[in-house]
Amino acid sequence: MTVQIQLSEIDHARREDHGDGAWSIAPDLGYLRLAIVNVVFFGAPGGGDRNWVLIDTGLPTSRSSILAVAEKRFGTNARPAAIILTHRHFDHVGPVLDLANKWDVPVFAHPLERPYLDGTTSYPPPDPWVGGGLMALLSPLFPRGPIDLGSRLEILPGDGSIPGMPGWQWLHTPGHAPGHISLWREEDGSLIVGDAFITTGQESVYEVAVQDLEMHGPPRYFTPDWEAAERSVKQLAALKPRMVISGHGAAAAGAGMRQALESLAERFREFAVPPKLKFVREPATVPNS
């Protein structure tokens, strides 16, 4: 079930195509849809070397598309100052190590995601019986093992700041993953939420292909801790963002978006939590070092 807000009331964020392959939704903010997932580019177009940041890296097949957009958007051989990961799920980290090595940049993540990024631990298994369609049923086939970023991996600063992104702060928004983060800029109400909530359905092949603009909770099959997920959505709704970019679906804006997000927060268990969870398990935790 989705939040029952008329889709015409959930506005697409105003976006412009500057010919670099990404949708620009603010002077220093753009995103690129790569098959089923979005990556986000922060930084002024034409900013040059080390003057931009990449948030998430999409699927393993996303490398060439990211490189092409980066070159057109920021300049030939313009490297980012950092890569920021909202979480480690396979569709958000695809070519991250390859890109980090090519650009010689650090990759920042929350400390609770470290075990999944340093080769130590796998995520818990998905729940294919959450309903909604074929994507959920196929979820046990999706990669969930650890990757090892080695010396490229760095932990986000404890003060909430984000390297290379002045004016932004990271927020711990667990539930979909233990160390999931969202990125918030209070000045203009911009919010990058990863998969804390999403703006299109993700459980069926049809939803993934059509990408109707709707308000959903996190992808059900890969969300092990629904209580934490609910708290995270309430936390984000309380910010009253003006524009949101989620990991799946188009960027959304306006009063309709805020109303839909508030409805999701208020009625999260009705709208987001699967009615039946076949797998009963403890939320993912970080093993003792």
Automatic annotation (TrEMBL):
CDD domains membership: yflN-like_MBL-fold
Stored SUPFAM superfamilies: Metallo-hydrolase/oxidoreductase (SSF56281)
Pfam families found in the cross-reference section: Lactamase_B (PF00753)
Highest taxon of the lineage: Bacteria
InterPro entries according to UniProt: Metallo-B-lactamas, NDM-1-like, RibonucZ/Hydroxyglut_hydro
Taxonomic path: Bacteria, Pseudomonadati, Pseudomonadota, Alphaproteobacteria, Hyphomicrobiales
Protein name stated in the entry: MBL fold metallo-hydrolase
Domain Metallo-beta-lactamase: start-end pairs: 36-248
Species per Swiss-Prot/TrEMBL record: Mesorhizobium opportunistum
